[in-house]
Amino acid sequence: MRWSGRGAIVFIRAPVKNESMTVNVRSLETAVPTTKLIQSEARDVFAAQPGLSRLGSRLVNTCFDGAAIETRFTAVEELTTTGRSENPQFYDQETGLLLNPSTKVRNDIFAREATKLFVQASRAALEAAPELNLLDITHLVTVSCTGFFNPGPDYKVVRELGLSPAVQRYHLGFMGCYAAFPALRAAKLFCEADPNAVVLVVCAELCSLHVRTSNNPDTIMGSALFADGAAAAVVTGRPGAEETALLKLDHFETVLTPVGEDSMAWNIGDNGFEMVLGNYVPHIIDDHIVDALEPLLAREPELAALPYTAIPHWAIHPGGRSILDKVQSRLGLSDAQLVPARETLRDFGNMSSATVLFVLKHILEQPLREGDERICSMAFGPGLTVETGLFTKLRQLNGGPANPARLDNAG
Predict the structure, then answer these.
(1) How far is CA 67 from CA 40, 121, 283, 388, in A?
(2) Is 175 left (phi over 0), alpha (psi -120 to 50) or beta?
(3) 19 contact partners, CB below 8 Å, separation of at least 6
(4) How many helices (DSSP H) and strands (DSSP E) are in the chain?
(5) Peptide bond before 256: cis, by omega within 30 degrees of 0?
(6) What pLDDT, on a 0 to 100 scale, did the predictor assign at position 266?
(7) pLDDT, tens digit (0-9, with 9 covering 90-100), for 254-286
(8) Cα Rg, the chain, nearest whole Å
(9) What is the mean pLDDT of residues 21-47?
(10) Cβ–Cβ contacts within 10 Å for residue 83, how many?
(11) What is the mean pLDDT of the chain?
(12) Active-site annotation, residues
């Protein structure tokens, strides 16, 4: 796909090998840190900071109250009103002040705490596929945009879980909220290239490491929205795997909108990573969401001919309430079709790349109506990038109970 000189979309499709092969998600599990943030309490802390201007104080209250979030989770225990630390780095309980640690301090915490979430989510996904041995995993794709270290999370997952040291490892770093889609697309391509492949995909984000007090509207919005969480999926096209599969990966597409490069960005600063989240982002999505969906639905002309509401499920990345509102309004979706996205936002906030997998899990846990059901999914990120996916929720949902002993005796 490219943009013509007049701004029109021109789609260029390369041939796809082995499209007839079915690739499924065998398991999908999530994990969050143990520390829960209550949105109203977090609002009061941020609103009480002495450096806020009158406008900044109003923005804090407006952004936190209007985010449609009730709870979030953080790997930084001292960010809660009950947390205690002898040497606080983020929040001083005694003075009520939010502190501003360096990027190194934040990243050191990421290396320690993100590893725990990567491993926890991976272990849960593998336990949910008890018919697979740990040594069956052939590929590992890890995803994060909230920190860096090396040997990285891909290495840590292999070592901590005892995967084969020959596992092919890939890390997608700093892509942002849409990165789960490139990870799943890569997993699908690996499976199409090797029918024996079993791919573990893991997203883990510690967005709360980068919160700070500020009068900047983008920073305030980020502090009101972002949270920590992880999700992992086991993907395979092995014969017989469909008997216990949850989800079929049908198609993926990527679209860059013609505007918005400066409206959503993620930069590295001296005191953490700095979010640029312009208030024009929902309007850009509103203007271009139909064009962004066109190449995905064109994969199945019979589906493209139907109204959007004919697709039962919509797994939309809840980048914020206003984004969900714009998508629902532009596509004419029902309130029920937005429930998975809105409830994920309400209960967990925006966990960047992991969030859309939480939404998909919400949909998978709903009772099936009749037969297989289609899911249209999308996520938005820097660029402005729109990633879309078309999936099938399978009628077979008897993945079986978790079997921890399988992990202990993998060799």
Answers:
(1) 11, 26, 17, 24
(2) alpha
(3) 192
(4) 12, 17
(5) no
(6) 86
(7) 999 998 787 788 899 999 998 877 677 888 999
(8) 21
(9) 96
(10) 15
(11) 90
(12) 177
Of 147 and 85, the structure prediction assigns the larger pLDDT to 147
Dist CA 208 CA 218 (whole Å) = 15
The owner of tokens 């490219």 is 2
Check: CB of residue 390 under 8 Å from CB of residue 300. yes
Per-residue pLDDT reduced to its tens digit, 312-367: 999 999 999 999 999 999 999 999 999 999 999 999 999 999 999 999 999 999 98
pLDDT tens-digit profile of 121-154? 999 999 999 999 999 999 999 999 999 999 999 9
Would you put residue 35 in left (φ > 0), alpha (ψ -120 to 50) or beta?
beta
Contact in structure between 222 and 287 (CB atoms under 8 Å):
no
Residue 367 burial by Cβ neighbours in a 10 Å radius (0-12, 13-18, 19+)? exposed
CA torsion through residues 61, 64, 65, 67, sign: positive
Does 13 score more than 80 pLDDT?
A: no
pLDDT of residue 6: 38
Angle, vertex CA 113, rays to CA 108 and CA 115, nearest 5? 100
Rounded-to-10 torsion of CA 397, 311, 325, 386 = 90
- 241 φψ region: left (φ > 0), alpha (ψ -120 to 50), beta (else): alpha
How much helix, strand and coil, in percent to the nearest 5, is found in the chain? Answer: 40, 25, 35
User: Is residue 401 predicted with pLDDT exceeding 50?
Assistant: no
Q: Which residues contact 169 (CB under 8 A, 6 or more apart)?
A: 139, 140, 142, 154, 155, 158
Nearest CA-CA partner of 204 in 345, 71, 351, 362: 351
Handedness of CA 123, 124, 126, 127 (dihedral sign): positive
pLDDT, one tens digit per residue, over 58-67 is 999 999 999 9
∠ Cα 105 174 47 (to 5°): 55
Kindly state the tokens that stand for 203. 């997203």
Mean pLDDT over residues 13-33, rounded? 79
Q: Tell me whether the omega of the peptide bond preceding residue 101 falls within 30 degrees of 0, making it cis.
A: no
Pair 22, 242: CB distance under 8 Å? yes
Residue with tokens 């021109």: 10
Residue 39: how many CB atoms within 10 A of its CB?
Answer: 18
